[in-house]
Design a protein that fits this description.
- The radius of gyration is 16 Å and the shape is elongated.
- The model has no long low-confidence stretch (mean pLDDT 84).
- It is of the alpha/beta class and 141 residues long.
- Helix 4 links the parallel strand 3 and strand 4.
- Helix 1 runs parallel beside helix 3.
């Protein structure tokens, strides 16, 4: 059995320090929401390939796996502009997750707070994103 943690529960740290702390605390895995976990990354727009490479190397060196890449976006928001931003960010995070070594991207939704029509719309959006990602990973796209 492996024990994991939401890395940002330890606060924001530099990449190497957080990897070391999680290892010292005995964790085998970490869910990473980069803007919540690392100093120097305050938004998803701040993430660079250099950050992702540092993260992957630091966590590998400390033997802490990254199974989940956190992308806290509201894909079910009825506001079209907010939802479009969330979808764009999720797509970026799907690519980032691969670079960081994560196989899962975790997100959230306002689903419980929506009316029936809004829920139908949100489900279609989420299904489309998941379908596209599955096709990419399976080689269909």
């Amino acid at each position: 059995m492996k024990i994991g943690v939401r890395a940002h529960d330890y606060g924001k740290m530099n990449i190497e320090d957080l990897a070391r702390v999680l290892h010292e605390e005995g964790y085998d895995a970490a869910q990473l929401a980069l803007p919540k976990a690392f100093t120097g990354i305050d938004s998803y727009e701040d993430i660079t390939l250099a950050h992702l490479e540092r993260i992957r190397r630091a966590f590998e060196a400390q033997k802490v796996e990254i199974p989940v890449f956190g992308c806290y976006m509201d894909l079910g928001n009825p506001d079209e502009e907010i939802r479009a931003y969330a979808l764009t960010t999720l797509k970026q995070c799907l690519a980032y997750s691969k670079e960081a070594g994560a196989n899962v991207v975790g997100t959230e939704t306002a689903y419980p707070h929506l009316d029936a029509e809004q829920k139908k719309s949100g489900i279609r959006i989420c299904w489309t994103v998941c379908s596209v990602q599955w096709k990419r990973r399976s080689g269909w796209m």
